[in-house]
Design a protein that fits this description.
With 466 residues, the chain is of the alpha+beta class. The protein is built from eight helices and 14 strands.
């Protein structure tokens, strides 16, 4: 007892010594903070490199000149997002819709009950909190689940649509709503927030997107201009079907026999660890938003948002610390002295298989670069957050450069182009170069474009910790 009392006294004195009365000492934080490594991600230290094409463009002269830039530290997925990882997102959306339908059908077992808190336990089914611990009776035959199963059947294809095969979830019902803040609208000179008055200028307006589902169950999108009164008026809303486009194999490569892969690439377990494709930029954005909330809901201390990398971040990571690397592996050739290919691409006209893969391949089939990142060249090209503009290098900063434009729903297609990096299984070697880029429209999906996520690093980089 006397020993314990001594320890308590020493602890109290120690705390008291660190708190100087009447002086500014800060509150509750350690001198250093070391962020936990996110699962499946690698740390990319800050650095400087020459951003831009190292070689003459395959599509003719361009105005995008190389420039020396610096990039902050960040985390990056070691591989592209795979089918099985994206399927976790799709299944979460499916289950959330199923739980909501059960609650709307007066199945109270699937509604979370919070004692002594009516504000958090609304009577309206539309606002009820979902009980994620409740088991969804997808194929139950128990008498108590009869009504619940009838409700869930509305999520399935009916038998005629499914051509007599086992019931499958209707992908058109896999909808996810996400929101984002239009910082571009907040940055307009006429919308400058006045810290003295605590409000926006008179006449300030915000141009944002909004989505809703009409009475026929069809997703509708429009761009509106609303009065900018509070920060909530800067928020855009988008509803997307998150299920990948499985028809793109046939649509993009007509007069070819791609039927097996078209039908089964996402659903069959044999392709679980292949990169997800058929996902638009907008669907990738939805995935990042979901991944952020999924992480933060499971941790007391939330992290930075998961997001798509900027073009500069992606290119810096692809070079693997080699400032002038032509390819992620650092050399100037796509084949070794032993005749082995270093990535999955199109070696020559009509020849897709010499690199051991005809179309997509399992992720991490080739050696990583010096940052331990796999498939930064070939396999599938990857979405970035950067808007495509051939003259972007003339206007961007040399610190964390990013030419970003949040294209609204009714903007022209020219404004919806996003930079795509890395080249794919169908591309020639030029597009595998770290500095090469192409573009695709943000609402289009392709069988050769996937993505990976990044997350900004909290804290100051210290080489001793990495």
């Amino acid at each position: 007892m006397r020993k314990n009392l001594t320890i308590i006294v020493i602890a109290v004195l120690s705390i008291a010594c660190n708190k100087v009365p009447g002086e500014l000492t800060g509150i509750g934080m350690k001198d250093t903070f070391l962020e936990e490594s996110p699962y499946g991600m690698v740390f990319i230290k800050p650095g400087t490199f020459m951003m831009g094409a190292n070689d003459q463009s395959a599509i003719g002269p361009i105005n995008d000149k190389p420039m020396n830039v610096s990039v902050d530290a960040f985390w990056m997925d070691e591989t592209e997002i795979t089918n099985t990882e994206y399927k976790q997102f799709v299944n979460w959306v499916r289950d959330s819709i199923a739980l909501r339908m059960l609650v709307m059908g007066n199945q109270e077992a699937y509604q979370l009950k919070i004692k002594n808190d009516t504000a958090q336990n609304p009577t309206s089914p539309e606002l009820a909190l979902l009980n994620w611990k409740a088991k969804i009776p997808w194929n139950s035959r128990k008498p108590k689940d009869i009504e619940a199963v009838k409700i869930l059947n509305n999520l399935y294809f009916n038998e005629s649509e499914n051509l007599g095969t086992s019931k499958q979830i209707n992908p058109l019902r896999m909808r996810y709503q996400y929101k984002w803040i239009n910082y571009d609208q907040a940055a307009l000179p006429g919308n400058k927030y006045n810290v003295n008055t605590g409000g926006f200028p008179k006449g300030a307006k915000s141009r944002v997107d909004t989505s809703w589902v009409d009475e026929n169950g069809v997703i509708r999108d429009s761009t509106i201009i609303r009065r900018l009164i509070t920060r909530k008026d800067l928020i855009s809303t988008r509803i997307v079907n998150v299920y990948p486009d499985t028809i793109m194999w046939l649509r993009d490569f007509q007069y070819s026999f791609n039927d097996p892969k078209m039908r089964m690439y996402f659903s069959h377990p044999g392709y679980s660890h292949y990169p997800v494709v058929g996902v638009s930029w907008e669907q990738a954005q939805a995935f990042c938003q979901w991944r952020t909330s999924f992480f933060n809901n499971s941790h007391n201390l939330g992290g930075q948002d998961y997001r798509l990398p900027s073009e500069a971040e992606w290119e810096y990571a692809a070079r693997g610390g080699k400032k002038m690397a032509l390819y992620p592996w650092g050399g100037n050739y796509v084949i070794t002295n032993d005749g082995c290919y270093l990535a999955n691409f199109k070696p020559m006209h009509g020849n897709y298989t010499d690199d051991t893969g005809a179309t997509t391949m399992r992720v991490a089939s080739f050696e990583p670069n010096d940052f331990c990142l796999f498939d930064m060249a070939g396999n599938v090209a990857e979405w970035t957050s950067t808007a495509y503009n051939v003259s972007a290098s003339t206007v961007v900063s040399d610190m964390n450069p990013n030419f970003q434009y949040n294209a609204k729903y009714n903007d022209s297609y020219m404004l919806k182009r996003k930079v795509v990096k890395g080249g794919s299984w169908k591309d020639i070697a030029y597009y595998l170069q770290c500095g090469a880029k192409s573009f695709e429209y943000q609402n289009e999906s392709r069988p050769y474009i996937g993505f990976r996520c990044v997350r900004s690093y909290n804290g100051t980089y210290n080489s001793k910790n990495f």
